[in-house]
Design brief:
Length: about 300
Amino acid sequence: MNLTNINITPVHIAFDEVCNKAIERGIRVTGSELVGLIPLKAMLDAGKYFLKKQKRSIGVSEKELIKIAVKSMGLDELGPFKPEERIIEYLLQNKADSKLVRMTLTDFADETASESPAPGGGSIAAYVGSLGASLATMVANLSSHKKGWDERWEEFSNWAEKGERYKNELVALVDKDTAAFNKIMTAFSLPKATEEEKAARTAAIQDATKFAIEIPFKVMQASFASMEVIKAMAEVGNPNSVSDAGVGALCARSAVMGAFMNVRINAAGYDDKQFVSGVINRGREIENKTIALEAEILKIVNAKIGC
């Protein structure tokens, strides 16, 4: 069939309807085939749809959602389904924009330890923040499948989905922070032989510096926001994983404080002092709230650990 508007009839709904019609005729659908390309959202929506039908948490990675969609609709029945070749967004994406997060853990550590100034503290703060959100999401997913808690799967699925969003945002900021640093280096390398060139160079440096302030500030915001999920999992999540929530809180706190250092050091080179003052004041507020919230979470965690 041709689906002319997947906003009206999503792929997974069409597939289920075909399955229902087949059952009425005493036969069953064993698989399907996609001719052409498909939007990423269609695959993610399908993955969530089939997980919900199974009363399983939908707060899982993009990769896992695609895998669930492929298996549930039998898209690999006639041949391997390669997401990088069949999903529109994957074909269009610039891999250079996610160079760091595509590395192995060892390669990332080696690149950080090298004489290259990037990735630096800003990218590391973002990655540490993503790990904090990941731990909270893990606790939520474990809780949604905990024996005896079957009726609470949707509650924990909602928490896991929220944690997954924070994780994804922070992972994307890993490369963006390094891109911000590179943008400053590019601006400083511009020619300055004439007055016009000097003016253009100064403007480029200021623009790049503002960007280098905004990116770590976003890391602060996302990491602090993720602590809502971390605290909830410390309070009501699987008690066997309460230490994981505690480590998540430590990661989030480190991410906020580390990112704020980058905000401050970059702000020193930005001429708009009113903008700088506003960012520093908001950053200080987030930092103070983070430290207080971390203490609350660790108190809960340590009380449950008990020794």
